Amino acid sequence: AIEAYVPGKAQAGGVAKVYKLSANENPLGPSPKAREAFHAADALELYPDGSSTRLRDAIAAAYGLDPARLVCGTGSDELITLIAAAYAGPGDEVIYSQYGFLVYRIATLAAGATPVVVPERNLTADVDALLAAVNEKTRIVFLANPNNPTGTYLPFDEVRRLQRGLPPHVLLVLDAAYAEYVRRNDYESGIELVATTRNVAMLRTFSKIHGLAALRVGWLYGPAEVVDAVNRIRGAFNVNAAAIAAATAAIGDTAHVEAAVAHNDTWLAWLTAELTALGLTVTPSVGNFVLVHFPDVDGKRAPDADAFLSARGLILRRMDAYGLPGALRLTVGTEEANRLLVAVLAEFLGKSSA
Ligand code: PLP
């Protein structure tokens, strides 16, 4: 049963329960099979399989891919960093779009390369602008599709136009961390482009739809040369044994994945409608999160909303680091968290929620 939210009940000095809606994690948690495999992991004195063979085979079987063209990483974060390190250095340029995932900047700077930030249109990556930024120094274009934190995406024909417009010395990295959530016929995660071209790599993660963010597992599907380059510089035993076991079990539990997608479908639509009804502007999202804008709604601002929410146990993500100080990003949560969030925001805005 869900307890009704009582306005004004939240007190300073502590909350009964904390709802973390700040990192786009899965409110349903992992598959019970993944949890079981994690707990069953043993032989802890032994190094894990440095090639993550079981896991690569399971991914390959699930998606119809060649396991030789897969690399697993400690989260897709590690793979982003490794790609930047392998392909870009001082004097090279790495392109990503204005509201692109923050790790692209960090990885570019860590590699000693120069970030080139390309303006977006309507909080969506702009293919023409991305292509216009390419020159002989460009080494990588990172594109999160769908993008975090905006929740927007590029349809397949736009991604293909981007790929076709890139010279062969540029690697296009399609980061499809939220691919499973997308319910659009014109979306493609990148598998098809990797399979049919030579300069595209795709990244995926077990942190989102599979609910295994704590274990840090991601994977790359790419050309043999990219796989080889990443394998040469990654840690020899980068993915740990419990993570390999849990992720392998997770990929086999398609019913759990379907349940997570169905939950997201329901509550993403509900949150979008409820927040809009409160007078807030919601960027239409195809992921498991939404960007909510407080363009001075009745004099109420995003940082004040954030403080009000966190005092009541609701943790959202401020967007100042992305240059969007008027927005908050929130992850689709459990039914309880979603309903509480809307009720608390209604109180903050001085409106009654239906
Ligand atoms: N790529 C995007 C677009 C993300 O939003 C995230 C996490 O939020 C990641 C990659 C990193 O995921 P992982 O947990 O696999 O490192």
What would you call the structural class?
Answer: alpha/beta
Note poorly predicted spans.
none
User: Care to count the β-strands?
Assistant: 13
Task: Compute the separation of the termini in Å.
Answer: 19 Å
Strand order of the largest sheet: 2-8-7-6-5-3-4
The named CATH superfamily of the largest domain: Type I PLP-dependent aspartate aminotransferase-like (Major domain)
Mean pLDDT: 95
Assess the beta-strand content as a share of residues: 15-25%
What hetero molecules are in the model?
pyridoxal-5'-phosphate
CATH class annotation of the largest domain? Alpha Beta
CATH fold naming of the largest domain: Aspartate Aminotransferase, domain 2
CATH architecture of the largest domain: 3-Layer(aba) Sandwich
Q: DSSP helix count?
A: 12
Rg over CA atoms: 21 Å
Largest sheet: 7 strands, mixed
The tally of structural domains comes to 2
What overall geometry do the principal axes of the alpha carbons give? globular
Cofactor: pyridoxal 5'-phosphate
Catalytic activity: L-histidinol phosphate + 2-oxoglutarate = 3-(imidazol-4-yl)-2-oxopropyl phosphate + L-glutamate
Pathway: Amino-acid biosynthesis; L-histidine biosynthesis; L-histidine from 5-phospho-alpha-D-ribose 1-diphosphate: step 7/9
GO molecular function, one term: histidinol-phosphate transaminase activity
